[in-house]
Amino acid sequence: MISYILPTHNRPDRLAKSLTHIGRLCADDHAQLGGAEVVIVDNASDAPPTLPRRLANGLPVRSFRMMSNQGAAARNFAAEQAQGDWLIMLDDDSYPLDTDFITVLDEAPPEVAAIGADIRLPDQRREAGGLPEVFVGCGAAIRRQAFIDVGGYDASFHYYAEEYDLCAKLLLAGHRIIHDDRFRVKHDKVSAGRDMNVILKYLVRNNGWIVQRYTPPEQRITMLHETIVRYGRIAELESAQAGYLQGLTELFATLQEQPQRQMPPSLFDRFTGLAHARHTLAESPHVAEGTRVALVDQGKNAWAVKQALREVGATIVDEQSDAKLFVIGTLSPGPMLDAYERRSRRGEPVLAAWSPQHISEDVATYPPEPANVGVSSSASSS
User: Fold this and answer.
1) Same-fold call for 2-187 versus 273-382
2) Quick one: DSSP state of residue 311?
3) Which of 26, 51, 323, 374 could form a disulfide with 294 if both were Cys (CB 3.0 to 4.6 A apart)?
């Protein structure tokens, strides 16, 4: 059985729209996994939302009201109440576009505990965030028992980077996490009215906590420095230095309180995406000793892409005009695929450092060499 999980807070119109879209999904398709239900958790809204007992397609709706805003941890209560084997984690403004993901769940091997969706924004760009084995919380499927066994979301995070903490716990428990482009989710995200000072406060603090908790000791100081610098740059771009400094203060005050669950280096390489970049670049026929490469569209964990390129002997150049090949400099699936598609449409020789499963286009290289040869096989995310 499938349980759609939607926490909500003071956004009844957005919740109603998402429920309308879920109500349009084919009810018969859910029978493949024993049916489905919808579980709503109201995060202490000023007024509880008015909800139907069933959606238009017959899916039953159950709702629960929290006495205070629990942030992302409201999903923990929903998971405890859910009857499904799979939890489809959504926001109150996100929803699946079709039921193709049901086949993805049915085919998932036992070691896969979570599957990240291909999440599209209103302007058709993909949602930012995540890594090869870190999903984005507004579009993910998680095995209920695995979620409960690792303790679900850590309530102290409230919002932002809580998925990284959960995915780290799932990896430490021996599970795998994948992304599959047959799982398509629309996120009707609105940027207006978002307080970037609050966001930067949580981003620098929570990502610092992740580093402190899971990074092997010999890498921790370097990773913490890179995290602080990364979000400092974002704060400057967003004019949110006040929130950033508040988060930095809270980070330093709480750093030593964080539970220590350092990953062994091999597992940490999976968590950061370095293992995926290594595998893809080592297998690519287009990257070899001395290949002149320009790193483009740099973002999340660009350092791992650079390290993997250096390990295969590629020469990283600053000027794109000096490069034989462009490599997308992020391991975050949404920005990576957007950058790949944009550059491939322009006919540029471009490579992505890893590829989600069942991706419809080959993201290994475009165009291949020589130009009249068919496109090479897509790299796996495993």
Assistant:
1) no
2) H
3) 323
CATH 3.90.550.10 fits 2-187, yes or no: yes
Neighbours of 230 (CB within 10 A): 18
* Domain range summary for the chain, segments of one domain joined by +: 2-187, 196-265, 273-382
What are 209's two structure tokens? 């906590």
pLDDT tens-place string over residues 237-267: 999 999 999 999 999 999 999 998 999 999 9
Q: Taking the model in full, what pTM does it have? A: 0.91
Q: Which two three-digit tokens encode residue 362?
A: 């080959």
Amino acid residing at 244: Y
| Contact criterion met (CB below 8 Å) for 336 and 300 | no
- Cα-to-chain-centroid distance, residue 325: 27
Among the listed residues 340, 342, 382, the one whose alpha carbon sits nearest the alpha carbon of residue 365: 340
With CA atoms as reference, report the closest residue to 87 among 51, 52, 121, 38: 38
Please, how many CA atoms are within 13 Å of residue 149, restricted to the half-sphere of its CB? 14
CB 65 within 8 A of CB 44: yes
